[in-house]
From TrEMBL:
<dbReference type="Pfam" id="PF02591">
    <property type="entry name" value="Zn_ribbon_9"/>
</dbReference>
<protein>
    <recommendedName>
        <fullName>C4-type zinc ribbon domain-containing protein</fullName>
    </recommendedName>
</protein>
<dbReference type="InterPro" id="IPR003743">
    <property type="entry name" value="Zf-RING_7"/>
</dbReference>
<keyword id="KW-0175">Coiled coil</keyword>
<feature type="domain" description="C4-type zinc ribbon">
    <location>
        <begin position="198"/>
        <end position="230"/>
    </location>
</feature>
<dbReference type="InterPro" id="IPR052376">
    <property type="entry name" value="Oxidative_Scav/Glycosyltrans"/>
</dbReference>
<feature type="coiled-coil region">
    <location>
        <begin position="83"/>
        <end position="159"/>
    </location>
</feature>
Amino acid sequence: MNKYLKELIDVSLLDREIDLMEPKIKQIKKGLNSKLYQQEVKEQEILSLEEQKESHRLQLLKCNETIATLGARLEDISKKMGEVKTEKELKALNIEEELAREQITYQNSEITRIEGLLNSVDEKIEQTKASIQSIQADIVEIEKEVASELEEIKKEQEVISKKKSLLVDKMDQKIVVFYEKIRKWAKNTSVVPVYKQACGGCFIKINDRVYTEVLKGDDITTCPHCGRILYIQED
């Protein structure tokens, strides 16, 4: 096999090992990211509950303002009753007074209902805060485990990267540049074996001439369909 082709295969295998570390890292971080997402959801719940609480407070304020207005109205009615001259006027004032008192009763019942809602919201906020504290405790423990595992992955990456650097430094740099151009789009399938006279990257059959070139292995041969570097898998 051509020396440069052998080097390209070795480099591509090292690149593949390095790239395969990323899924491992994502998997390691999966549990941590899940907990961080849970924390974020709970924090959003608290914000929503705080908005509900503020809305209830405004409702309480409105009820109290209405009661104050109705109280002033009752005082005004009471004064007018002292000055009433006809039965018709008295009757009208009595009706107005009754309606005002009914409104006050209704507003008081609303205050009781809203205060109950406020208490319920406060309870939910406390429960959610307790959940966040529990999640944060889990995050601290998971972060320790993740940090340890990531450190091991980092060491592996450094070892493989060093191997690649040593190999690349010895290679013809024109061939390295050629390989990197293919790798930009082909990623881990930049250098692929031929299976049953088909490219191992695009899986399209190559013609006899190209296949013969690959079998000889004297030069670097690329797939005429996709441009990947081809080689014959040795036992």
